[in-house]
User: Which sequence fits this backbone?
């Protein structure tokens, strides 16, 4: 019946109109920093912390389908998290669904848990 990975859950993020076109919105869901973006009417979610050092991408700048880190200018494709400049690692992205006026994000059950 379920089509999503059992280890992930949909978390309600915010009302749809709280995500403004061209302005990233940062929030914490299940302790995970998440950045939401609305681009041409579509909503995307990525991890909110740059993979280069420590900066919130929700403080950064959207240009087309990319987000630029405010600290040293790393650039990521918002759609797939691909790093296009500066940082070495890609950004984690999360599936988004919109039901009525509510944005939800599919997040792993426990991120960064105790690993072996
Ligand atoms: S912390 Fe984002 S580019 Fe350095």
Assistant:
């Amino acid at each position: 019946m379920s089509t999503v990975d059992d280890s992930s859950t949909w978390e309600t993020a915010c009302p749809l109109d709280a995500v403004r076109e061209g302005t990233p919105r940062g929030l914490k869901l299940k302790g995970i920093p998440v950045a939401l973006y609305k681009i041409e009417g579509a909503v995307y979610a990525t991890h909110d912390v740059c993979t280069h050092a420590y900066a919130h991408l929700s403080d950064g700048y959207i240009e087309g389908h990319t987000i630029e880190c405010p600290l040293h200018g790393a650039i990521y494709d918002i759609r797939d998290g691909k790093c296009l400049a500066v940082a070495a690692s890609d950004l984690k992205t999360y599936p988004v669904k919109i039901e009525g006026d509510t944005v939800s994000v599919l997040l792993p059950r426990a991120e960064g848990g105790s690993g072996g």
